[in-house]
Write a structure and sequence with these properties.
The protein is mainly alpha-helical and about 70 residues long. It has 2 helices and no strands. The chain has one domain. The chain has helices at about 10-35, 40-70.
Length: about 70
């Protein structure tokens, strides 16, 4: 079995997939915690949605930095 070279492209794809999953989990957790704190449903969904977008944006920005650093 030969060793295959790990490229930044494959790492970037994996990083984005992980970022998407983390964004969904963070958004759902933020919404549930807001509901647990007796916030209205519209406020909880807004907080969850904004958390989702923020974490997804961080994942994409870090992916761009990874591509720029390692040349994907």
């Amino acid at each position: 079995m030969t060793d295959s070279r790990i490229t930044a492209h494959a790492l970037g794809r994996s990083w984005l997939a992980l970022g998407r999953r983390l964004a969904v989990a963070a958004g759902a957790l933020a919404g549930l915690l807001s509901l647990h704190a007796h916030a209205p449903v519209w406020v909880a969904s807004l907080r969850g949605g904004l958390t989702f977008v923020a974490v997804l944006l961080l994942a994409r920005l870090s992916r761009a930095l990874l591509a720029r650093t390692f040349g994907a």
